[in-house]
Each structure stands twice: as structure tokens, then as C-alpha cells.
Amino acid sequence: MSAAKFFKCLADETRLRCVMLLQARDALCVCDLAEALESSQPKVSRHLAQLRACDLVSDHREGQWVFYRLHPDLASWQSEVLTRSQAALVAGLPFQEDLRRLEAAEYRKPASRCP
Fold first, then answer.
1. Closest by alpha carbon to 70, among 2, 9, 4?
2. Which of 54, 95, 99, 111 could lock 9 by a disulfide, CB 3.0 to 4.6 Å apart?
3. Which domains does the chain carry?
4. Opening angle at CA 75, ends 71 and 81, nearest 5
5. Which ranges of the chain does DSSP label H, i.e. alpha helix?
6. Is the pTM of this model over 0.85?
């Protein structure tokens, strides 16, 4: 993927926030991302589909749940950009609040929601 396409895929705030959360966790389902971002599941799913089309994320199914993670075949420069971006952005808004909401959701997650 070209650098221009990579950065274009990250140019949307929702997609960037999804990627930063996936950088912080191994894998997340749509319901976790939607709660952390305070967005609807359809909106988050649409952005994840765009990230998947850019080969920035991959998905895998566990039963009825689909989990997303950063694509394991990202180029080393892409991984480096994401790592440095997360380090620089994690302390600021909205990223800090996204992580706080994600941690709160993981703590109180009922058994009926995704694992």
C-alpha cells in the first residue's frame, strides 16, 4: 500500500480512533469499539470495513462474534507510524477517554455480550 493510501485511510477521526484502540488491545469486537467511541455499531462497522479494505485491519470469527485486530502483515514503516502515533496521542482527547471507556466496558461486560 502506498503511503498516500495509508494516511488517507487514517484521515477520518473514527477510523483513527479505532486503529488507536486496536493498537492498545490485541483484538476487539464491534460492540467494544462502539461503546468506547460512543458511536453506533453500524457506524463503527462501516469504518472497520473501510479499514479492512485498506488492509489496515483483519478480522476473525469466534462463534457469532467477529473480532478485529491490526493486520499482521502491515509493513514495518506502517507499524512504526502507528506505534509512534499511539504514544503521542494516547494522553490527549479523545483517545484517553476512548481507552477509559473501553476499560470500563471490559470491566462490567455482561456474559450475554461478546466475550
1. 9
2. 54
3. 3-105 (1.10.10.10)
4. 90
5. 3-10, 13-24, 30-37, 41-53, 76-89, 95-108
6. yes
